[in-house]
Fold:
Amino acid sequence: MQLDSQRVDIRKRMRSLRKNLSQTEQKSAANALNINISQVIKVKKATKIGGYLSNDGEPDLSPAFENIWGQKGRTYLPIIHPFSGVHLLFQHYEKNSPMKANRYAILEPVLNCSHICPVAELDYILTPLVAFDSQGNRLGMGGGFYDRTFAQIPDDKVKKPILIGVAHQCQEVDTLPIASWDVPLDYIITPERIYCTTR
Structure:
């Protein structure tokens, strides 16, 4: 119960911090993130990169998407699984992809099963988060969608997606209270820093 209370408090505080960033600060952050993301993600033709569309003050990945497309990489966005309702599917995303709002009023691609990429076949996944620590621990919004989806990646898979958290620097905390189901990240990228962690 204490763990839940701590996580609720952190979420409330961090969501307030990032939502209070000005448009100028958000734009500057997006451009700086693009530079740092390009230091970690080595894009080749047909490199598969999962991402997200910003919501609730999350950092904007638009400049990073433009950069990836310019290098012939392929981007994918999460869709809430239409049957399980608790996992994510990743669907190919382009600038003109048809979109719709999901149950959280977040835009996602209109489901097209022929454009889905199995999560284990993505090369990189850029994930939003509410808070992080330097050990690669991530605190999300509380729905568990990313953790459940990442948990489906087979342990014996030789080449796994590289998991990258994306955040504003103000979202860092000294140590996150961790739950057993939390999946740690390989990198965390902010406009100011690149954290390389070990799983």
Notes: The longest helix spans residues 2-19. The radius of gyration is 16 Å. Residues 82 and 111 are 9 Å apart (CA to CA). Residues 2-196 form a domain with the Rossmann fold fold (CATH 3.40.50.10420).
